[in-house]
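Exercise 7. Predict the structure of FtsX-like permease family protein from Candidatus Faeciplasma gallinarum.
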Amino acid sequence: MKMTLKTLMRTIRATFGRYVAIFAIVALGIGFFTGLKSAKPSMQKTADEYLNELNMYDFQLMSTLGFTQEDIDAFADTQGISAAEGSVYADVLADFDGAGDLAYRIYSLPEKVALPKLMSGRLPLAANECIVDAEIFTEDDIGKTLVLSGNNESDTLEQFNQTEFTIVGTAQSPRYISIDRDSTSLGSGKVEGFVYILPDAFETDVYMEALLSCESDELLFSDEYYEMIDSVEPSVKSVLQERADMRYDEIISDANAELSDARAELDSGWEQYNTALESGIPEQMLADALSQLESGEEDYSAAQAEVDAIKPPTTYLLDLDSNSGCSTFKNDIVVVDGIAYVFPAFFVIIAALVCITTMTRMVNDERTQIGTLKALGYSYITISLKYILYASSAALLGCVAGFFLGTGVLPQIIWSVYDISYGFSDLVYHFSFVMYACCLAISLAGSVAVTLYACRRELSENPAELVRPKSPPNGKRILLEYIKPIWSRMSFLSKVTIRNAFRYKKRMVMMLLGIGGCTALMVTGLGIRDSVAHILDYQYDEIMLYDASATYDSDSADSVEEFLDDRSGGYITGYQDTMTVSSGSGEKDANVIALNAQESEGYFDLHDSKEEIPYPTGYEAVVSSKLASQLGVSAGDRIFLNFDGDSVGYTVTGVCDNFVNHYVYISEESVSDYAPNAAYIMQGEQEDIQATAAGLRAIDGVSYVSVIEQERALMENSMSSMDYIVVVVVLFAGALAFVVLYNLTNINIIERMREVATVKVLGFRPGETASYVLRENIIFSVIGGLIGLGVGWLLHGYVMAQVHVDAMTFDVRISALSYVIAFACTIGFTVIANIIMRFKLDKVNMAESLKSVE
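Solution. The predicted structure, encoded as tokens:
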């Protein structure tokens, strides 16, 4: 053992470059593997700890009639719910520090659910105090005043018993984990920031929403979490509907009781009037009494009309995915996880192949020493142990360094990219002992297996054969030599380069695999960006051509159309709702849009990659591509839409391209009791679409207004993070390509040391010597790069198939520029490796190299 360790240390010192190459290639492979694999759980754990610390809601309940404290108590008693709290909020125009009227969303300060995280200052203690959005305000703003504007509607101001609020702190809110701050009907249509005040500052005893937190320790966005949500949701939905019905009955009952009292009072007044009429009271007094009674009758009729107009409440049950920030975050980590499916495994395969080449060369170089040890009686295991320790020590050190650098640095790099859009917390480090143990085991087992594979042939020979240099292989002609017109016109150096390139077939295969694999990784990384970069352009420039849309109650249709008629831009109306779409293969929720086929032209362009698709008529439907894939339907198949419990069948006439959300397009005549509840709006000349959106939001009954420009900007901001991830992938692939080239070129120079010395003795200049040895690297890089372009195309398709974002379809493509960039990077890294190895060639000692056999 002492001999083994001594020779091991000598070998490491003598071949330190080779040792470091194995270390680096394993560290890169393991680091990239563990780094990408840790990115999703680290991001997931970060969001989980942050949102759990602030007890973020799992369900957000809304009702058009609001909730009472009794309703909140009923929700709290629902099975699976740990806490429930009512909330009040209002959008207001307010002035801060002379900045003018800006829109803010003011919430009642919660005590149990969706708690704000104080960043500076303190929480409000009085009704005229508030804490504000830490993204917009700073610690220096504490002590300043936020003043409600007189330009607010009177109904808005009546919701508050204060008009000025002193800022006492800044905070983050779990409602807003991204930089998006919602839209509003006020001002520019964009909420500037959030504000929290004490519930006592609101003049209301009815809550606008109920926030529910579940009894669960499941990791957010995990399959187990959604299984828990699915198990609790039916109970919550049942209680929500029950309490909404009770609330409606209570309001109607109280209103009817008040009307009954008013009717009795009016009837008594009429009796008194009739009695006075008979008793001969002066006409003026009678006229005054009659006027009061008639006015009372008018008030009664108006009150009766108001009661009759009260509709049964519409309820909404929203989960965490309905929060725009949480939904976007979930999609982002899904993309990161999809990339992690295949990239790391490819890195590990390349690393293993290069290690095989390295150890095979090393064992071959030391065959004389192996023969001597065998002659001295050392066993197969004892001799192999040195090489096993050499490879395994480099691999294990590379594994440990790569694991902790990968899990510590790469997720931080990815998080720093997404921090632009989120930034709600520092990244939580995720350590997986199972992954660590598996990496160590794979590194150890792989290095041992590779070494035994490399040793098996040399150790099977006799000592007498091993102590002599290995006979060179028989010379062989290459295919090009038989093509005389080409071969005869080639220079001497070109012929030598071509022969040498194909002389060592194992090294040639390894170099082609290594370089081709790295090129494939770069193509895949760049292709991912290409597949994501243009989907918003396709969606909003080629499919959905309108500039804004609004959804509203059908009763508000006249008000909406009257408002839109006063503009210069055009619009169309239709029916839109979220429905369950089913087929023989399953069911899925989707946005269903019903329009007039002629009117849809210019607002919707339905097509696939080959041709235009006519807008459906009758009971026909056009289905978006990803929805059709998930339901397993194509043109000619049947789907069924659930209209409030009634299932209506449609024949699919086309599957259209679509990249954001799921859509089913149907004709307006196929919808029974058709009543428009959506408008699709074109921006007119000199029109401010944001002002139009704000005007729509101010109309009673308008539930949602979407401005395409804002929606697009939000998604573009999220997708821009992909550029940085692609840069990381390309850099890692480039680093791996460089290490592969360096290691294999180093082996090439070492095994051809006498040949290099010979050509130097023959008078080759330094440049000619370098060209003699290194030109084949360029050849292999070109061939390997071309192979990698094809493999990258296949790999890219596989990776994109693993990236499952439910509401998004990717345009799976690789641009010509990406192929050029990947190929150019491959050649560039080859040139860098050649420049570095040029110095090693210059240091070759001719005398020592030529007598090395002796």
